[in-house]
Amino acid sequence: MLDEITRTGRQFDSALASANTAREIDEVRVHYFGRKGGLIPALFARLKEVPKEQKKEIGDALNKLRDRIESALKEKSERIASEEATRKEARETLDVTLPGRAPRLGHLHPITIVRRELEEIFVEMGYSLDPGPEVETDWYNFGALNFTPDHPARDMQDTFFLDVDQLLLRTHTSNVQIRSMERFKPPLRVLSCGRVYRRDEITMRKSPVFHQAEGFLVDKGIHIGHLRATLEQFIKRLFGADLAMRMRPSYFPFTEPSAEVDMSCVFCRGKGCNTCSQTGWMEILGSGMIHPQVLRNVGIDPDEWSGFAFGFGIDRAAMIKFDIPNIRTLFENDLRVLQQF
Ligand code: DAH
Prior knowledge:
This protein is α+β, with helices and mostly antiparallel strands. The chain contains eleven helices and nine strands. The longest helix is centred in the N-terminal third of the chain and has 41 residues, at 52-92. It is rod-shaped and about 135 Å long. The model has no long low-confidence stretch (mean pLDDT 92). 3,4-dihydroxyphenylalanine binds next to strand 8 and strand 9.
């Protein structure tokens, strides 16, 4: 039995040497001390059968083995626990000097950037914002704006008509003039930005959906000088204080007189380049004094009130401002493009 005790000790040493986790050590512990089938209690049980004269020697050897195994298990499990604690601490160390990880921020779309800038400029001039509906009736898009049913000016705005209730997709944001003037009494200053639709051919500069800003003002004694000063202020703030502006006579059914407005080409600052066909000018908006018939259509007396209006292409402004050659770039949602703004 002494041999068996020695063998058990050696087997234990090799079992402990290959146990490297708390769990493995526990398995070794159960193997030697487990209540059911543990090797050490089994050896002690066999002491009964040992002849009297050998009992002391074998008993001492057994006690020694038990104590050695117990303390070896204890020592190794403590060592492993403390190693594990050190590793955990290392993993969880907080380095407060590391630079922070910035969250990935989105980007405003170029159209949104220009729209917000426009809104800011006009809100500062006392304008209210009114988006108006994109699906319209013929009356608000054309009729009330003095386009009579067979008016040739309707051809300038090739329209998407809907199958239901003679509705259409608005071709311009001028519908908001009528809707705002119906709802609110003058004096009025309104800016309206939104999507508009036309069945135009698709080119580098034209898309069936695009964005416009419509501004208008109605008050007492308003004349074309107010219009000019407002537009000049707006162009200089949006595109640069050094730019000049000019007005050319034009025609819109809802304004009289009407003017097309040009500003100095932003690329050559008026000197003449390929973008402006060497003219030094870029056409950027339509405008005019609100036609008396339009005021009458919404119940405003043109002898008492007068006003001006203007319409402006937001996409075109974004293309000019950010030097984007193709309007479709604005609608393709290509992150490689959009992340640049
Ligand atoms: N609604 C016109 C268009 O889409 C633009 C425009 C021209 C608006 C003159 C106006 C204006 O308010 O006075 O072509």
